[in-house]
Design goal:
By secondary structure, the chain is an alpha+beta fold. The protein is globular.
């Protein structure tokens, strides 16, 4: 069972700052692909729109209804997704998941700021919310390819 000190560490000032200053909160008017994801355990959900050109993300919009951890992750993703390929988003996804599940390092640049979520490793019930934005971004890219 976690105590108040553990929760204070989990919700650091940097996580709260990222959650409060999230870019990309405008949905795209004509996205190439859109996806919605929900974390069943906590009810967090996100809708992501992407515009793609030449296999790279040229536009990114999102509607986020998540805890501060999910919002912080979405903030980092939104700030860095433009210019990325599906492969780069998949790599960030896989690296973040590995960081949360094991002793792996934080994702590579440009998603390296996701390291701020390292204290959430011990809170498995929060992992789905943290992964929502990258999951939805991959789904939106895949929807654009259909």
């Amino acid at each position: 069972m976690s105590n108040d000190t553990d929760l204070i560490k989990l919700y650091s000032a940097r996580i709260l700052a990222l959650a409060a200053d999230m870019p990309g909160l405008e949905r795209l008017s004509a996205p190439s692909g859109t996806a919605h994801r929900r974390a069943p355990l906590c009810g967090s959900n996100i809708t992501v729109d992407v515009a793609l050109e030449g296999g790279k993300i040229t536009g990114f919009g999102q509607d986020v209804k998540a805890c501060a951890l999910g919002q912080a992750a979405a903030s980092v993703v939104a700030a860095n997704a433009i210019g990325c390929t599906r492969a780069e988003i998949q790599t960030a996804h896989d690296q973040l998941l590995a960081m949360l599940r094991s002793e792996s390092q934080a994702p590579d640049a440009p998603f390296d700021e996701l390291k701020v979520l390292l204290p959430a490793r011990e809170y498995k019930n929060r992992h789905a919310s943290i992964m929502l934005c990258l999951d939805a971004t991959l789904d939106a890219i895949d929807a654009a390819a259909v």
